[in-house]
Amino acid sequence: MQTSGGQDHLCINPEIYCKKIQGTSVRSNSSASVLPQRKYQRHLSIAMATSLGARKPTSIQRPKRWSEEVEEAYRLQLAGYRDALEYHSVKGEIDRWPKSGYIKKLQRKDGNYYYYNRSRECADKDVNKIKLYGY
């Protein structure tokens, strides 16, 4: 998915979204590794998410209507995180509901938890408050 500025938009949920990869290299803690040239990379490892978590977003976009990407961003931003990359770099793996793939539980930065339902939680009135970050 392209943002208006032409940058790729990165999403972590592998069941729903893909990131277009064009031979980019990613640094892990031990050494640099090059991802294979594929049209879509379906799974991001924790090491890749951790190394990308320190990156700053290059664009911000506000959605006009609800989508699964907006739902994921809503749950993360309600817990105090910019996006899934930041959560992975701070807390690790995200707990998800098995069938829907939505986020089930997030730990806030103060140590408390947010628990979410299996169904949609982002109301239509809250959609325009969400920020979608592009990298």
From TrEMBL:
Pfam families per the UniProt record, alphabetical: Meiosis_expr (PF15163)
Origin: domain of life: Eukaryota
InterPro entries: Meiosis-expressed_gene_1
UniProt source species: Patiria miniata (Bat star)
Protein name as catalogued: Meiosis expressed gene 1 protein homolog
Cross-referenced PANTHER family: MEIOSIS EXPRESSED GENE 1 PROTEIN HOMOLOG (PTHR17008:SF1), MEIOSIS-EXPRESSED GENE 1 PROTEIN (PTHR17008)
UniProt record similarity statement: Belongs to the MEIG1 family.
Cellular component aspect of the GO annotation: nucleus
